From TrEMBL:
Name assigned to this protein: DUF3107 domain-containing protein
Domain of life: Bacteria
Length: 75
């Protein structure tokens, strides 16, 4: 599952690939946002952790990655 995270004053979004289900990721995001001093804690598919203070979040996009096609073939 691909997760894109927008952060205040950052020119690029954070993107991770996670083995968690969309519902699990959504639950983690919601529980972090419910805490006034929340910390979003996600783990990618390689076991690396991403920690972002919730006061700096602008958006979290959860979805499947889109495969890019290369070439001039027809569909």
């Amino acid at each position: 599952m691909e997760v894109k995270i927008g952060v205040h004053n950052a020119t690029r979004e954070l993107v991770i690939e996670s083995n968690q289900s969309p519902k699990d990721i959504e639950g983690t995001v919601r529980s972090a946002l419910s805490d006034p001093n929340g910390l979003l804690d996600l783990e990618d598919e390689r076991g690396r952790r991403l920690l972002v203070r919730t006061e700096h979040l602008t958006y979290v996009e959860i979805g499947e990655p889109v495969e890019r096609r290369v070439g001039f073939g027809t569909v």
